[in-house]
Amino acid sequence: MADPVAQTSLDDGHRGTVAGDRPAGELAAAHGLADGDLVAMFRTLALARALDERMWILNRAGRLPFVISGQGHEGAQVGLAWALRRGHDWVAPFYRSVATCLALGMTPRDLMLANYAKASDLGSGGRQMPGHYGSPMHKLVSVSSPVATQILHATGIALAAKLRQTGQVAVAIMGEGSSNQGDVHEALNFAAIHRLPLVFIVENNGYSISVPAEKEVSVRDVAVRAAGYGIPGVVVDGTDVLACYEAGLDAVARARMGGGPTLVEAKVVRLTAHSSDDQQTKYRSEESLAEGRAHDPLPIFRSQLRAAGVLTPALEDAMAAQIAAAVDDATAFAEAEPDPDPATAMDWVYAERWPGEQPPPWHQAATSGSGR
Ligand SMILES: Cc1ncc(C[n+]2csc(CCOP(=O)(O)OP(=O)(O)O)c2C)c(N)n1
Ligand SMILES: [Mg+2]
């Protein structure tokens, strides 16, 4: 039987315009893409959703201690990540970045290993909190639990990239609640002064746990704060994958060309409770929940691609089967992997070489960048 992970790998010729791709349709061409790119973007979004849904089931079944979900954020994450050079640019994600991690090359197995805290977890060997993904070989910085600390990490990475003239861009991703931390303002100021190759992304889902946006942010759009630092601030519909891709391309190109940072705010929806330890019906009205579901990026993108003739029933069926197999495979694989050996508890606390920089056996050939 073919390896389901290989079947759903993003390194299957569907990234970039490659020989043998179907001729680009109108929708794809309007964004400088091929139909195969749109299919791969959709598959990443659908895979992220399916994996996320499985995590909740495993939590309720007593297998995973904690789940923090990306559901509702995936459209923005896939669109924005697609603008990057995979394996070249650095991303400091946050705990909802499931689709970002997949788009940058992490596999369902990798994400499940992190949630099960298994010894073979790429980010920490099973030391991190569930949902706190990271993978050095994918240039994904390990997620920080104290919100917004990752913004300063990304700023430092961008400074290093500029000094070393590597041509890399760093991306810092956060929620709108986290954007109020002092660290973020320090990072914006520093990055603007030094014109760092950095993109700040705020995934604004309207809530910081149970606190609604109007009680956490003094302005309607976080992006307007960019003006205070003399950099561009952009608001984009985070449920529109291709609008996010365009916003990402623009910001990444500016950063790479020496034009300095951009603050991109993607308006997204939070389709789940804050985490598996939260019950959102205690503080969200039925109208608010229905409003969120009406802006679910998955059916929106699916309808768009069906209307453009990019998704066909046969393709969708095949993709659904591949995704279901990949999620089953990731679950079974992570269940069967060993826990970390307690004797190794003190390993990697200090500056020892972290083995997660090398591709593990279940990875195919190393990923290569294909963005612009
Ligand atoms: C410095 C810090 N303060 C508080 C918390 C607790 N906390 C965890 S997630 C969260 C909400 C953050 O909201 P937002 O940035 O909007 O992201 P969202 O969860 O909505 O995607 C808070 C307050 C924390 N982890 N770190
Ligand atoms: Mg939020």
Give me the secondary-structure topology.
Layout (H helix, E strand, L loop, with lengths): L3 H5 L17 H5 L4 H26 L13 H8 L8 E3 L5 H6 L4 H9 L32 H16 L5 E6 L6 H12 L4 E7 L2 E2 L2 E2 L20 E5 L3 H16 L5 E6 L18 H9 L2 H11 L5 H24 L36
Parallel strand pairs: 1-2, 2-3, 3-7, 6-7
Antiparallel strand pairs: 4-5
The chain binds thiamine diphosphate and magnesium ion.
The site of magnesium ion has 6 residues, from strand 4.
Description:
- Helix content is 40%, strand content 8%.
- It has 372 residues and is α/β, with parallel strands linked by helices.
- It has a single domain (4-336), classed as Thiamin diphosphate (ThDP)-binding fold, Pyr/PP domains (Rossmann fold).
- The protein binds thiamine diphosphate and magnesium ion (MG).
Provide a short characterization of the protein structure:
This protein is α/β, with parallel strands linked by helices. Helix content is 40%, strand content 8%. It has one domain: Thiamin diphosphate (ThDP)-binding fold, Pyr/PP domains (Rossmann fold, 3-Layer(aba) Sandwich).
Keywords:
two-stranded antiparallel ribbon, binds magnesium ion, Rossmann fold, 12 helices, disordered N terminus, single chain, alpha/beta, 40% helix
The total of beta strands comes to 7
Q: What is the helix/strand order? A: HHHHEHHHEHEEEEHEHHH
Shape descriptor? globular
Termini distance?
A: 36 Å
Radius of gyration: 20 Å
* Major sheet: 5 strands, parallel
Question: What ligand species are in this complex?
Answer: thiamine diphosphate, magnesium ion
CATH class category: Alpha Beta
CATH topology: Rossmann fold
What oligomeric arrangement do these chains adopt? single chain
